[in-house]
Amino acid sequence: MIEYTTPAESCESSITEKRSEFIARIFPVETVEACMQAIDAVKAKHHKARHNVWAYRLRDGSSRYSDDGEPQGTGGIPVLSVLQKAEIEDVCCVVTRYFGGVLLGASGLTRAYSSAASEALKNAEMLHYCEAYRVRYIIPYADYGTVTYLISDFGVIDAGSEFAENVTLLFDIRMDRFEAFKKRFTEAFNGEPDLEILETHFAVFP
User: Fold this and answer.
1) For the chain, which terminal residue's Cβ has fewer other Cβ atoms within 10 angstroms, N or C?
2) Computed over its alpha carbons, how large is the radius of gyration of the chain?
3) DSSP-assigned beta bridge partners for residue 137
4) Distance (Å, whole) CA 54 – CA 92
């Protein structure tokens, strides 16, 4: 089963290191094109800044970084390392530096860029996506109470229910929990439940 974590929305944070301001921005992205658009937007907004260091990491396994004029290895790699250690994908981070007049040295720059990216991640709301089945389950009203009680143990996400002649439940369940789910209901009702898998997709789970 595939699962990944990504930011819910853009956010930012800033730190000051020896009078240099480092402004870090986190963007949820899905493609290289979206990454470059986010980077270009930050550069346009902060065109007077000395550096706009960036890194991105996508779910397809691609990643890239830029020191944007800083000494090699002191900007982009530390930012990318923060994203990797946090195990976040489909994310782009741009760290803008306004020079404060004091040289930080290689170790100081590495620490500052890493800290700025880490602080921005602390402000980011994260979404955890898992491969899931969208399931339709039609039951009689008499079973509704029992089913809703049993279903609560599997962390399913309600996708809408219809109450007509019978109750039609529509929900997402993680793929790795589906077999245990089916077994529990088979035992509870002395027969395999009529669960209709409509599609496989990615859904957000706690």
Assistant:
1) C
2) 23
3) 169, 195
4) 7
Residue 11 buriedness (CB in 10 A; 0-12 / 13-18 / 19+): middle
Task: Spell out the alpha helix ranges (H) of the chain.
Answer: 32-45, 76-85, 105-122, 144-151, 178-189
H/E element holding 117?
A: helix 105-122
Q: Do the beta carbons of residue 3 and residue 129 sit within 8 Å?
A: yes
The predicted-structure confidence for 102-119, as pLDDT tens digits, reads as follows 889 999 999 999 999 999
pLDDT digit string (tens) for 35-65? 999 999 999 999 999 899 999 999 999 999 9
Helix, strand or coil, per DSSP, at residue 160: strand
d(CA 94, CA 36): 10
Nearest CA-CA partner of 11 in 100, 130, 129, 116: 116
Contacts of 133 (CB under 8 A, 6+ apart): 172, 173, 175, 178, 197, 198, 199, 200
User: 65, 78, 68, 64: which is closest to 106 by C-alpha?
Assistant: 78
Read off the tokens for 37. 């658009």
Confidence of residue 73 (pLDDT cuts 50, 70, 90): very high
**What is the C-alpha separation between 83 and 75, in angstroms, rounded?**
13
Collapse the DSSP code of 72 into the 3-class scheme (helix H, G, I; strand E, B; otherwise coil) and give the result: coil
The residues that bridge with 204 in the sheet, in sequence order, are 129
